[in-house]
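User: structure tokens for this one?
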Amino acid sequence: MNVSTAWLESVSGLLKGPQAMQLGFAALLGMAVFSLMVALVLLVMGLSDPLRRRLKHLEASAEVAGGHGKADESGLVQWLGPMGEKLIPEKDEVRSRIATELRHAGKRSPSAVSLFYGIRLLLTVVPPLLVLLLIIPFVRLPPMVAVLLLIIPAILGYLLPRFWLERAIKLRTQQLRRGLPDALDLLVVCSEAGLGLGAAIQRVARDLEVSHPELADELHLFGMQTRAGMDNKTALRDLEERTGVEDIRGLVTTLLQSMRFGTSIAMTLRLFAVELRDKRTQEAEEKAAKVSTKMLFPLIFCVFPSFFVVALGPPLLGAAAALAGR
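Assistant:
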């Protein structure tokens, strides 16, 4: 009894100052929010199906063992996946569209959609909580400013995963388009040397692992699908859907027409390579033609003012001096 009384007296003595009271209130608020978040996470994980969580854990372990993921990614999926499942839209169109966009970005994991929504939830909730715990208790702000400091990070956290997804798709599309001409040239050489389409694609995938790893990964997956028993047409269609690149879609369509009509694959690849080079040349000429128009605005607002100052400055100063002397 004496020990508890002495402890309470010491605590009350420490909290006599206003700053100490404010610090203690912030600490208690932080502990309450942390306990609430832990309770919500445990509740969501408890509401999810245990069998499904076990299967996802085994899938994540298999990805880590196969070298397609990391150990921290499996833990991230285990924590954020169940939370993201509750936010996945019920409409099949929206769900399939998000899954397709994630595949275009190179995220082919079965739990990619739930992880995407889980990360969106995390970025929407955590920044406002940090602002609430670290800024608002220690800085006196007007109520409207405090509300804006809570709303703006939540909106940015909600939109940030979407911006990242669009940028990842754009960067991966550029990498795939950049490596396609080299792959076509190697495919033409391998086809004219007598290799079949599957063997030629596997050989090209091995040769492009260093220079174009994204395209080599897609071609390796094509080879794995054909070795697993999938026919070339279905594997080509899946390659077209996975990448979402217009040039690869044209290549797949050309190869499927060549298989359908029985023409030479080597000749088809050579003709498509010539067409692709012509298309790239036209795109380069189009960009070069736009340079003069794009340079007009920097020229007017940046170069011309300095040129006028250098060219007309001395005469104006001389005229001003002459007028002043007169």
